[in-house]
Amino acid sequence: MFDIGFWELTIIGIVALLVIGPERLPRVARTAGLWVGRARRFVTSVKADIDREIAADELKKALAKQTQTPGLYDIIEDTKKSLQDIQESATEKPHSDKQQIPESVTEQPRSDEPDAPESATGQPHGDKDAVVQKSNDASG
Fold first, then answer.
1. Residues 59-110: pLDDT tens digits?
2. Is the dihedral of CA 117, 120, 121, 127 positive or negative?
3. Cα 47 to Cα 36: distance, rounded to the nearest angstrom
4. Were both Cys, which of 30, 70, 103, 120 would link to 74 (CB 3.0–4.6 Å)?
5. Torsional sign, CA 68, 74, 76, 80
């Protein structure tokens, strides 16, 4: 608060010793110390009161802001209602608006196509008679 250094305090002490005298100086210093302590406590309490008032005002503003916004319960209820509306509209509409899936995607393998992979000769692995017959045709 005040910028009082060592030399300023020394000068004030010498002047007080000369003006008040050595007999009353300790009593005056004790009284001055008490007054300074009271003043500091008063300033500290005023600062604390101001800080509490500021915090209370901020809390009141926050509470007022929260009362203006919808509560969590209201948001949950609105969401539930929206979901129910969507489910009801989905069950009421016919499924004709779905995209048509091409037949090539949904087509099942035909019965004339083999399920087993083919060998290097182009024949299925499980058809031994056809391999033997081809080799007989090639030799004869």
1. 999 888 877 776 777 888 888 999 999 988 888 765 555 555 555 555 555 5
2. negative
3. 17
4. 70
5. negative
